[in-house]
Structures are given as structure tokens and as C-alpha cells.
Amino acid sequence: MVENKIDAGEHASQLSAYEQALWQWARQNRRLSFEAKLIFLTPEGRPPDSRADQQLWVAMGYKDLAAALAQAGRDAPEPGRTLLMLYVSTILKEILGIASRIDEVDSVKQLPFMKSVIDQGSPS
Q: Which of 2, 20, 43, 48 could form a disulfide with 39 if both were Cys (CB 3.0 to 4.6 A apart)?
């Protein structure tokens, strides 16, 4: 489970409410032994405010997320590789303020698989 906080902090008991919902889902779906990772995602990777939440939730920054996705995308087949790289580019540019190589919509339209997606998706 990922709680994404870009411009706001968590409100009282928010993370524990998510934990309860997750365990309720596990019980209802008879997944009592599943392993869950609770990720607290923020631009800078800050931990949750509450000490109790800090023990259960793993703090992760967008720079780490972008690096992990870029690494995963190296061996991904198309169109998944390009879509991952576009998402990484968006994280870098829009959230972290780092210039990216793909920052024009026109350059995305140049990609071979995007042409067919755009052509098929355009209204007649």
C-alpha cells in the first residue's frame, strides 16, 4: 500500500485507518498470511509524523521511486519501457523540478507505438 503525499501532511489517524482497511480486506479475502509493505511516499522521503506510523510505514522519496522505476524499465519490453520512462520523466520534472529529456508532448507522439495508440484512439 502506498500513501502519496506531495503537498499535504497526513491527518490524525489517517495511516492507521489505511492499515485497518488493508487488514480488513485481507480477512475478507482469506489472505491472512500475506505480506504487506506500507510505503509513505513524499517528494523528499520524509517519515510520517507519528512515531507509531514511523515503525510500520517505510518512508520513500520520489528520487528513489524514479531510480527504481528507471532500473525496472531497462529490461522491460515496449511499450512498457517507454511508458515507465515517461512516468520517470514526469516525476523528475513535475515533482522534483529536475529537467528531463522528454518534456515535449510532440516528442512522445514521435514514438512508433504512440502513433498507433493516437490513431486508434482518435474519434472518427
A: 2
